[in-house]
Write a structure and sequence with these properties.
- A hairpin with a 4-residue loop joins strand 2 (22-28) and strand 3 (33-40).
- Helices cover 34% and strands 23% of the residues.
- The protein has a 3-stranded antiparallel beta sheet.
- It has 2 helices and 3 strands.
- By secondary structure, the protein is α+β, with helices and mostly antiparallel strands.
Length: 95
């Protein structure tokens, strides 16, 4: 089913403050998530580079936000799914 999703190529940004203040930049082409960058919002503890790398790798491998995340960082995992999901929703081609 995820093979049917089409994107408008480009780079999309989103931010969430629901659980943790995070920002995401997601780069997509027509059929694929090309890159994901996740960063902490202002006045938040910085997301550790190793965690960002794990999330990025999982999203790129699964080509979705349906990821396992990091077991000891469940709140952060939920926030990552939320913020990347928002960016992907903006990128989605609904035509």
């Amino acid at each position: 089913m995820k093979d049917e999703i089409k994107f408008i190529p480009g780079e999309y940004s989103a931010e969430t403050k629901d659980l943790v203040h995070l920002k995401a930049k997601v780069k997509v082409d027509r059929n694929k998530i090309v890159d994901v960058k996740i960063s902490s919002g202002k006045d938040e503890r910085l997301i550790e580079p190793a965690l960002e790398k794990v999330f990025r790798g999982q999203i790129l491998k699964s080509q979705s936000i349906a990821i396992d995340g990091v077991s000891s960082a469940s709140v952060l995992t939920k926030a990552v799914k939320t913020v990347v999901g928002k960016a992907l929703a903006d990128a989605r081609d609904n035509d």
